[in-house]
Amino acid sequence: MKFVITGGAGFIGSHIAKHLINKNHKVTIVDNFSRGRLENLSGFEEKIEFQKMDILNLDSLKKIISDSDGIFHQAALTSVPESFIQKEKYHNVNVVGTENIFKLAKEFEKKVVYASSSSVYGNTSVTPITEDFDKNPINPYGITKLDDEKLAKKYHDLGVSIIGLRYFNVYGIGQTNDYAGVITKFFDQINLDQSPIVFGDGSHTRDFVSVEDVAKANLLSMESTTSFSFLNIGTGIPTSVNELAQLMINLSGKPLEIKHDELPQGDVKESLADVFLAKKLINWNYDISLKDGLKKYFF
Questions:
Q1: Distance between CA atoms of 125 and 129, rounded to whole angstroms?
Q2: How many domains is the chain partitioned into structurally?
Q3: Domain membership flag for residue 100
Q4: What CATH number is associated with residue 217?
Q5: Domain containing 128: what range?
Q6: Do the beta carbons of residue 145 and residue 120 sit within 8 Å?
Q7: Cis bond leading into 128, ω under 30°?
Q8: Which Pfam family is an annotated match for this chain, by its short name (predicted)?
Q9: In three state form, how does the secondary structure of the chain look?
Q10: Label partner for 95 (CA 20 to 30 A): which of 30, 83, 242, 268?
């Protein structure tokens, strides 16, 4: 089969591309390369068709999508701090661009699996978070992702098969600092023999999930008979940022200590996924533990 991946040269998109190729599918990547990098697909370039293109260019996308069997929509701007400064840009790319994909999916009757985010929930008083929790995003990035979900519901009601995956804290090789990149930041600091800097007191928790497991969730969603849902993609295991920093120090074997700094604006206190629905609807569960996933950074 032939699939289109928007943002396919980016962190998560490139891992989806590799999984598809390893399953002998054909892959067309749509990316404007503002954030995506060809080196993310090193060794796979000859097996991929690249289209340097912006998702805001509706007409140019038509032929590419009409000639596909499905769309993995990963293209987005993802930096929470940056979203406060560039609200209009984030709305255009993340909302207007996403509606372009949904429009074409309707026109050509294609299934879409797309990147939503746990940021749609905002700060919750209870964890783990199930998909029916209230949606109260606390930053402009999260607002764009909630707007996308409203569009997904609208276009599903018009007949489009759409699954939105609410990623929790995705990590892995190829990750950049602007994509919830606390692990990348810690690694860079430790690699320079510097103490990892934890914002706040470090008690805030995250649900870290390997990009390999996230890529598998995308493929299972496309293959599934489910025509519409929003699914949490995490591990269901809480890890405090202090625990994360200490684990990375331990794996590095370096005699470093954690340092603390002021907590930035728009940061969620606790984030933990309930993943029952993903298990039920697409038969997905995570395979890679945080410790095993982090070993790839150091060994």
A1: 10
A2: 1
A3: yes
A4: 3.40.50.720
A5: 2-171+208-235+274-282
A6: yes
A7: yes
A8: Epimerase
A9: CEEEEECCCCHHHHHHHHHHHHCCCEEEEEECCCCCCHHHHCCCHHHEEEEECCCCCHHHHHHHHHCCCEEEECCCCCCHHHHHHCHHHHHHHHHHHHHHHHHHHHHHCCCEEEEEEHHHCECCCCCCECCCCCCECCCHHHHHHHHHHHHHHHHHHCCCCEEEEEECEEECCCCCCCCCCHHHHHHHHHHCCCCCEEECCCCCEECEEEHHHHHHHHHHHHHCCCCEEEEEECCCCCEEHHHHHHHHHHHHCCCCCCEEECCCCCCCCECCECCHHHHHHHCCCCCCCHHHHHHHHHC
A10: 268
Asked if 195 and 189 count as a contact pair (C-beta separation under 8 A), the reply is yes
In a domain, 156, yes or no: yes
Active site residue 141: yes
Judge if pTM exceeds 0.90.
yes
At residue 177, does pLDDT exceed 70? no
Is 45 inside any structural domain? yes
**Residue 260 burial (CB count, 10 A):** 15
Whether 57 is in a domain gets the answer yes
Read off the pLDDT of residues 56-77 as tens digits, 9 standing for 90 and up.
Answer: 999 999 999 999 999 999 999 9
